[in-house]
Write a structure and sequence with these properties.
With 236 residues, the chain is mainly β. It contains 2 helices and 16 strands. It folds into 2 domains: 92 residues, Electron Transport, Fmn-binding Protein, Chain A (Pnp Oxidase, Chain A); 112 residues, Beta Barrel (Thrombin, subunit H), CATH 2.40.10.220. It starts with a helix and ends with a helix.
Length: 236
């Protein structure tokens, strides 16, 4: 884990700034992550506003259509994404308000950690994916994406799926701020490596490049990569 965290730090440009300097907009989705629970929980909420030096207002988290009971003093890490930057800061609930609708006052941070991901930065992940042939309907396989960038990925599979230059379609699920997106990306095999130790049941590692990524898929892909790099950098 330490190596992964150090690699993630090398792949990002980090700085600290004031919250009002972050390019967050009213209505943006932000993520509240519990700090004290053994089982990490994340809640997706919307930013309602902020009063400098006083509080940050967000909607009360909901699960299955019901508002959660939130206690004052409960601590969170807030994570948000805007443009090419990811932001994070610790906070706690100052006040839980129920009228005229449920919302939370969070403690205003002294500073916010900002990470700008370098182009081509890869996040270590473990994401199950489905692979089909771009022009070969008979090619169907499962794989595991073991690192991921905006422009490509390293994928482990049980058997070879073609030569360099082979076009594939990669499908996988990305969850960002509690929102699930199913991505379907065109890809080209750029490198093939084989693990001959016999210690893994997915000995073929394919370096793939994403091509012709649609705007619909590029936004959740970008946010997912940023989220994973941010968590690794913070050691979350």
């Amino acid at each position: 884990m330490a190596d992964n965290q150090e690699q993630a730090r090398e792949q990002t440009t980090e700085k600290y700034l004031m919250l009002e300097e972050a390019r967050l907009q009213i209505g943006d989705l932000v993520n509240l992550q519990t700090q004290s629970s053994d089982a990490i929980e994340r809640y997706s909420v919307r930013l309602l506003g902020m009063s400098k030096g006083r509080s940050v207002l967000v909607t009360t988290p909901m699960i299955d259509g019901k508002y959660l009971l939130m206690r004052e003093g409960q601590g969170f890490i807030v994570r948000a994404f805007s443009g090419k930057s990811a932001y994070a800061f610790p906070t706690q609930i100052l006040k839980s308000v129920n009228t005229p609708y449920p919302y939370l006052h969070l403690a205003y941070p002294r500073e916010v950690r900002s990470l700008v991901v370098r182009r081509g930065s890869r996040a270590d992940v473990k994401v199950i994916c489905a692979v089909t042939g771009y022009d070969d309907a008979t090619l169907q396989a499962a794989g595991t994406i073991i690192n991921l960038s905006i422009g490509g990925a390293l994928m482990a599979v049980k058997q070879p799926l073609g030569e360099k230059g082979q076009r594939l379609i990669i499908k996988f699920k990305a969850i960002v701020n509690g929102i699930e997106a199913m991505l379907e990306l065109n890809a080209v095999i750029r490198a093939i490596n084989v693990d001959q130790t016999g210690e893994t049941d997915t000995p073929y590692q394919l370096g793939i490049q994403f091509v012709d990524v649609s705007a619909e898929d590029s936004i959740p892909l970008l946010a997912f990569v940023y989220q994973e790099l941010l968590e690794q950098s913070l050691g979350i």
